[in-house]
Design brief:
The chain starts with a helix and ends with a helix. The protein has about 140 residues and is mostly helical. It contains five helices and no strands.
Length: about 140
């Protein structure tokens, strides 16, 4: 595993640990569209974890018969519930195995968000996160 992937994994683990250690509560009535106010704070631990999962999915370099993109769309919708929009682009040259690893890492992050969202009864987030997890499973099963 390359240094950059190890670093990304370490950052991800740190974010997820901070997310659960903080025990923050999700907003009850979050906006459905991203906030236009740059001073608004949408970078909660939940949003940070969703953005991390989105970045992993986006950087995976294989098609997965459209399921990777559908998972990205669902993660984006979960972010929009918080008034955030995941940013970033790019696909790199990587092996299928490396791409599969990134999808699995995104699945692990989303599973943690799903557990927390379920405990907090955040049904809007849960719907999108469950759909993303389902699409990742389909993507990995078809390759």
């Amino acid at each position: 595993m390359s240094f950059s992937k190890v670093l990304l994994l370490a950052i991800t683990i740190g974010l997820v640990s901070a997310f659960f250690a903080a025990g923050t509560c999700l907003a009850k009535d979050p906006p459905k569209e991203p906030s236009k106010d740059p001073s608004s704070s949408t970078d909660t631990p939940e949003v940070a974890t969703l953005k991390q999962a989105y970045a992993l999915l986006k950087s995976a370099d294989h098609d997965y018969k459209g399921h990777r993109v559908k998972a990205m769309d669902s993660v984006k919708e979960a972010c929009l519930v918080f008034g955030a929009d995941p940013k970033g682009d790019g696909k790199g040259d990587q092996s299928q195995a490396d791409s599969d690893t990134q999808l699995r890492q995104a699945d692990q992050l989303l599973s943690k968000v799903r557990t927390y969202a379920a405990a907090q009864r955040q049904n809007q987030v849960l719907i999108h996160v469950n759909k993303a997890i389902s699409e990742i499973s389909l993507a990995l099963a078809r390759n």
